[in-house]
Specification:
- The structure is a homodimer of 185-residue chains.
- The longest helix of chain A has 33 residues.
- The first copy, chain A, is built from six helices and three strands.
- In chain A, helix 1 packs across helix 2, helix 2 crosses helix 4 and helix 5 runs antiparallel to helix 6.
- The first copy, chain A, starts with 31 loop residues before the first helix and ends with a helix.
- Chain A has a three-stranded antiparallel beta sheet with strand order 1-3-2.
- The first copy, chain A, is mainly α and 185 residues long.
- In chain A, a hairpin with a 5-residue loop joins strand 2 and strand 3.
- Chain A is elongated, with a radius of gyration of 22 Å.
- Chains A and B meet through helix 1, helix 5 and helix 6 of A and helix 1, helix 5 and helix 6 of B.
- Chain B binds a DNA duplex (30 and 30 nucleotides) through helix 4.
Chain lengths: 185, 185
DNA sequence: CTGGGAGTTCAATAAAAAATGAACAGGAAA
DNA sequence: TTTCCTGTTCATTTTTTATTGAACTCCCAG
């Protein structure tokens, strides 16, 4: 079967429950609204192969009007420091999250970039594009190898045509990307 | 580092160079040409979240002019019967592989469907579309929940606008799919 | 029928990916 | 400088996903 996906039901949320645990247990300090939005982004993220925690972090920020600090993110989502740190870094790298204002101490506040277009662009660039590039190179190699193969002419012809078609597809898909990105305004 | 996602190195799976990994006695029954084509499809498949074995099977068939039997597929790729069986089934379900002619006994021959368009369509339908549908439903729920949330008016406004934008994005992406599929001729 | 091989199923296992948390930088305030 | 606190790194653990293989089903040949 194709890509599986966990069906998340939005669990309700109690406002302030276990804020002080040594290590959080999947705790949810989220409002029902926030939980639902987080669910949306977890799903979207998984569809693009991103870890669940990334989707959670982005979703929480997306559902917040104020900048959130590292701690707040961690405790509300019940994630480990490591996950939050890595998640924030990755999200900042693709421009999905942005630093917005300093808190006292060495702390910073984070905000979701809600402009979807550059975000989609970055994701596609990071996932599809590399594969297209790699694939094109491999196809060129394969075309070369086909020449060295000792095959009946008819077979060679058939295979050469298949490779051509695939190459065309790659080219087209490559050309399509910028267009798609532009379309998602 | 960057966005994770499956980015297998898939470097030229040269013929005999894989004396490494203890696991699979992987596929050494392939010509250099076949190995390279298999690599292309393993990569493409992984980019869409398909198991490696699916890509291998499809790739092998794509690189063959004759129908291949179950056994041939299994032994050339060095996969288990189970993997081949499941892989073939999934590939047939999305129309990527087709039964082509019977061999003696209970055996059948398999061929790759080389028409890329319906194939891409099936894959997108199976992966992105369900997520878009689910996401839309969740967004509707979220919009409802936002109403019940006790928030300053300004905040509620901001969030409502964000949800709207996201919903628009979903709609647009949904509308885009058929178009993309049509474009990949 | 019935014997045997082709392919399927699915619980068990292995492999891959993500999350965790303890050790570690490094800055700010004192 | 020293202390304290925030966030990072990365080896380890947990979770998820893919693969295997043995038990099974089914069908054709004999």
């Amino acid at each position: 079967m194709p890509v599986p996906l966990s069906a998340r039901s939005a669990t309700a949320a109690s406002e302030f429950s276990d804020a002080g645990r040594g290590s959080a247990e999947a705790a949810v300090d989220l409002s029902a609204f926030q939980a639902e939005v987080v669910g949306v982004f977890v799903g979207l993220g998984q569809a693009m192969g991103l870890p669940k925690s990334y989707g959670e972090i982005y979703g929480l920020l997306f559902a917040s009007t104020q900048p959130l600090g590292f701690n707040e993110i961690q405790s509300r989502l019940g994630l480990s420091k490591g996950s939050v740190s890595q998640g924030l870094r990755a999200l900042r790298e693709i421009g999905a999250v942005v630093v917005a204002g300093d808190f006292p101490g060495r702390r910073e506040g984070y905000v979701a970039a809600t402009e979807l277009r550059p975000l989609a662009a970055a994701l596609l660039r990071g996932t599809l594009e590399p594969q297209l590039v790699r694939g094109s190179a491999q196809l060129k190699t394969a075309t070369g190898l086909l020449g060295e193969e000792n095959l009946p002419l008819a077979d060679r012809r058939v295979l050469a045509r298949r490779l051509d078609k695939l190459q065309g597809w790659h080219r087209k898909a490559g050309g399509l990307l910028p267009w798609i990105i532009k379309f998602l305004r």
